[in-house]
Amino acid sequence: MEADETDLDRHPHPHLAVDVALLTLHERALHALLLRRDAAPFAGAASLPGGFVHIDESLPDAVVRVLREKCGLHGVFVEQLFTFGDVGRDPRGRVVTVAYYALVPVAALAAARATGELTLCRLDVPWPQTQGGPVRALDANGKPLRLAFDHDVILGTTVQRLRGKIDYAPVGFELLPPQFTLLDLLEVHQAVLGCPINKDSFRRRLLASGLLAPTGRLRANVAHRPAALFRFRRKGRGKGHA
Amino acid sequence: MEADETDLDRHPHPHLAVDVALLTLHERALHALLLRRDAAPFAGAASLPGGFVHIDESLPDAVVRVLREKCGLHGVFVEQLFTFGDVGRDPRGRVVTVAYYALVPVAALAAARATGELTLCRLDVPWPQTQGGPVRALDANGKPLRLAFDHDVILGTTVQRLRGKIDYAPVGFELLPPQFTLLDLLEVHQAVLGCPINKDSFRRRLLASGLLAPTGRLRANVAHRPAALFRFRRKGRGKGHA
DNA sequence: GCAGCATATATGCATTTGGAAGATAAGCAA
DNA sequence: TTGCTTATCTTCCAAATGCATATATGCTGC
């Protein structure tokens, strides 16, 4: 940062946007909340909710505003993901975007989906483990949607981040309602990781983690022994990571 | 992204910069390469090498340029860290910075340190584990330096990221010369993590990881049994992460 | 009300993984 | 050559995990 802002204003500088990859769990699969663009560029394509950062708002504030204005959502879990700044990523000009990801239980989207052009699209992750790469979003018929800008890469980076994080950070809870069973949580992990998980060790590990608070209640209306309902306990006594 | 760029140009938009937290290992401790600011704001304070992003260069290109222009360095390991965009973080106006971290063996800095106002400052991390928070940079006398902008937080985020990553990603090698002993690598991990590590399990884990290629050579000029020298083998056959 | 069903939960055991300690090896110095 | 120091190897033990089995429980159909 060698020059005064007055110097810099003589030259054009990049525009700055935020985009939000909002993920949820629906029918045991990861879904993203996408909107349909009706203006060029990429008219007709699906895109992440996003918007330009105002001169007087922080990045998290911009994200909160975008989620409110475009999705009618508030109070959702949000974390910064990565900043994408390739020169050619927006045909309109130089736009650098700070991508965030948001996680919400699918029930919280009922209101959002009623509002306008939003659709919940199942994600198709064509790579294993945490390898990374773009991800496809499927329409109701299972056909891949055209995604605007580099949003396929942003979605891919989101899944990659979640896969690397879910084993040691309590992010799975953000995709579940306040009360859930261990099987619910297991299915979240399986959907994120894209592979089956050992049920017993998962149970033991989670019960020992101190992250679960028993509610004393049971899952109702199931034609078999009902599972215990748990609640996420924040500030689980962490045991380091080594 | 709802508006045309022509619309947006009517309004002022944030400036965009990159800052690089360049870390190395010196005397078994993490050090950062800092430069002394001679212009306001924060004149006299220490700061990360950084600069504004040009309209026609990608973010990685801007980082490479900054490292070349300000530090005389090229070919170093660089990864994106986090984007800092608080409204008040730069008193000159709205500047959002995409922070990167770079890792280099200390020997590679000989040239850089000769060039101008660069100093290698030992880092003092006042928090355990991966808790996070700002980090102090110490001068040659061990006194904390005044750090410009939010660069104390950027350095803290770098250490936090490294601590979370070094156990499962091959980043420790970037801080070592091409050939090194297992004890060298262990000391890198200890310096990053800020806590002692079990020597035997470290040896077993690393030898089994496939990341080390034996060179057949031994450390010379030591008054005891010399350790074997290894080389970092890229593309170690990863075994997933579960 | 009762047998039976499907899943939840608990228990036991083999395998694997990581920590700790001792034994041995290999250079150099006196 | 002896002794010192650190590297490397071997062994043992505790903890975590995968797997198989046994038991528990609420519901459904009769």
Largest sheet of chain A, if any? 8 strands, mixed
Which superfamily, in CATH terms, is the homologous superfamily of the largest domain in chain A? Answer: Nucleoside Triphosphate Pyrophosphohydrolase
Helix content of chain A: 10-25%
CATH class of the largest domain in chain A: Alpha Beta
> What ranges of chain A have pLDDT less than 50 throughout 5 or more consecutive residues?
1-5, 236-242
CATH topology of the largest domain in chain A: Nucleoside Triphosphate Pyrophosphohydrolase
CATH architecture of the largest domain in chain A: Alpha-Beta Complex
Q: What is the radius of gyration of chain A?
A: 20 Å
Instruction: Tell me the greatest interface.
Output: A-B, 50 and 50 residues
Shape of chain A: elongated
Q: Quote the distance from N terminus to C terminus of chain A.
A: 38 Å
Structural class of chain A: alpha+beta
Total number of distinct structural domains of chain A: 2
Oligomeric nature of the chains: homodimer
Count, helices of chain A: 6
Explain how this protein is built.
The structure is a homodimer of 242-residue chains. In chain A, 25% of the residues lie in helices and 27% in strands. Chain A is of the alpha+beta class. Chain A folds into two domains: 12-165, Nucleoside Triphosphate Pyrophosphohydrolase; 178-232, Winged helix-like DNA-binding domain superfamily/Winged helix DNA-binding domain (Arc Repressor Mutant, subunit A, Orthogonal Bundle), CATH 1.10.10.10. In chain A, the strands form two sheets. In chain A, strands 1, 2, 3, 4, 5, 6, 7 and 8 form an eight-stranded mixed beta sheet that branches. Chain A has a three-stranded antiparallel beta sheet with strand order 9-11-10. Residues 1-5 and 236-242 of chain A have low confidence and may be disordered. Chains A and B meet through β1, β4, β5 and β6 of A and β1, β4, β5 and β6 of B. Chain A binds a DNA duplex (30 and 30 nucleotides) through α6.
